[in-house]
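Entry for iron/sulfur cluster complex. Fields follow.
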Amino acid sequence: MRVWIDQDLCTGDGICIDHCPDVFVQLEDGIAYVAEGGMALNDPGGSGSLAAIPDRAVADVIHAAEACPGECIFIEADPPAAGVAEVDAAHADDAAA
Ligand code: SF4
């Protein structure tokens, strides 16, 4: 799973950091950003900066999204691996035959 923040809606209250400081950080502008491997993903930020959520942090990130007063934390499923699409295409050929 991956997560991003819409900084245009962030109030800067820091609730997400309280829930999960491994994934959320607050920068000098007072706004929250996602982080991955200890690095804030603030360029470009928004939906252009998706952070992978470590398995151990998934519940905390979900709680943060539920508590976020800006409703600006968005959690997305991981995209399918490239190999999965190739397998699906192979099965589609089998089904057509
Ligand atoms: S909880 Fe939401 S509104 Fe508050 S700082 Fe985090 S992202 Fe911004």
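NOTE: The chain has three helices and six strands.
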